[in-house]
Design a protein that fits this description.
There is one protein chain. By secondary structure, the chain is mainly beta. The longest helix has 8 residues. The protein is rod-shaped.
């Protein structure tokens, strides 16, 4: 191709003309300062020698046979949607030229004489390509102008998942399968949103974060259908209320008890390696002093284990008929009580008194002589306590309920 003339209307828009070796005229135009040149469709079997803009809308081209070509292409511009995804309408647009009729052509044999035709109401990737339009005024046809259409495919839906089910306080994370070139859009309960592929919702999950989370993938501005994943954050069960049948005497039966929690399994631990999965286990039918101490129990529901409940077991070392009679002769009243309790000891000359909570902590202590003795328990919290009564040669245990 031999180029004979070049002319620009501004820094970006210009024309070049010439001819090929068969002496057919060639016209090229650029809209980006010459970085790219587009060949215009023309049927002219003579050399083209000169091109010049009369104004921004009118170009004159001189041929070797003395003919002058006038084009109104400067006023004819085309466009389509910047971003087009499969399934969307595809429409073309040409600028308005007074008195003009239009001729469009494009991929798959598309033609139209409308100024702004709709190619399809449901675009496919096959409709991508270059569409051309010319304007005809008074039987004179302009040079063609083109617009490039790219119909992007809809990406597949990412596969959504999560790391649950799990318990309150655990870390909650979401995952989406990898899709080349994609960005992601997550939504979920409590207004959760994220553009990460695999976001962490919280490092300290709560039951309120349970629910359905949705994710879509976006490629070339085209968004996939959503995929969802259901998150279940299980509640932690409360600590069971632990108890026992003590204080008990050496050689008797020692049993433990835990409050009922719906759907729970239980785990007991205690002195001497004691374990049990029963709600209300029997430690022994022949209790020894070594079995005294704190026993703990936890409840597990839906795989979540709560805090432990604790009960203190006290073993009475009294044996023999005389001791049992002595035990029965010592009284604590009133019981339950809220402020003052009285301890009557008709037989023991001196009596050491210690009050323990269920954690095994001594919260009150005193020493009395025989007869009736008062203790102020108003400072104690409501609950169950063990009163240990120690004489010169024996120890007695009593359960006390503080109201």
């Amino acid at each position: 191709v031999v180029l004979t003339s070049l002319n620009f209307s501004d820094a970006n828009t210009g024309y070049a003309v010439g001819y090929d070796y068969n002496h057919y005229g060639k016209i090229y135009n650029t809209i980006n300062g010459g970085a790219n040149w587009n060949l215009q469709t023309i049927f002219w079997d003579h050399d083209l020698k000169s091109v010049k803009y009369a104004d921004e809308n009118t170009v004159y081209i001189v041929g070797s046979n003395g003919a002058i070509l006038k084009t109104i292409i400067g006023a004819n511009s085309t466009s389509n949607y910047d971003t087009l995804c499969e399934g969307a309408p595809l429409s073309l647009f040409a600028s308005t030229i007074t008195g003009a009729t239009y001729t469009w052509s494009g991929p798959n044999g598309f033609t139209s004489t409308l100024q702004n035709p709709t190619v399809s109401g449901n675009a496919t990737a096959a409709m991508s390509g270059t569409y051309s339009v010319t304007a005809i005024v008074n039987a004179c046809t302009s040079l063609n102008e083109t617009t490039t259409v790219l119909v992007s495919t809809i990406p597949p839906s990412p596969i959504a998942s999560n790391n649950g089910p799990f318990c309150e306080g655990a870390s909650l994370s979401l995952t989406a399968s990898a899709i080349t070139g994609a960005t992601y859009n997550w939504t979920g309960p409590n207004g959760f949103t994220s553009t990460q592929q695999n976001p962490t919702v919280s490092s300290n999950a709560t039951a309120g974060m349970s629910g359905t989370y949705s994710v879509s993938a976006i490629v070339n501005a085209c968004e996939s259908l959503n995929d969802t994943t259901t998150v279940l954050v299980n509640l932690m069960p409360p600590p069971p209320v632990a108890g026992n049948n003590g204080p008990v005497v050496v050689g008797s039966t020692l049993t433990l008890s835990a409050s009922l929690i719906s759907g729970a399994t239980y785990s007991w631990t205690g002195p001497n390696g004691f374990t049990s999965t029963e709600q209300n286990p029997t430690v022994s039918t022949n209790t020894t002093l070594a079995m005294a101490g704190n026993y703990e129990v936890t409840a597990t529901v839906n795989g979540c284990t709560g805090l432990a409940g604790t009960t203190l077991v006290l073993i009475d070392s009294i044996v023999g008929i005389t001791d049992m009679m002595t035990k029965s002769s010592i009284n604590i009243f009133p019981n339950p009580a809220s402020e003052i309790i009285s301890i009557v000891s008709p037989e023991m000359q001196k009596l050491k008194i210690q009050v323990y909570n269920t954690l095994g902590e001594c919260v009150l202590h005193s020493e009395f002589g025989n007869g009736e003795n008062d203790i102020n328990i108003s400072s104690l919290s409501k609950g169950i306590y063990i009163v240990r009564l120690t004489g010169t040669d024996r120890t007695l245990l009593r359960k006390l309920i503080k109201e």
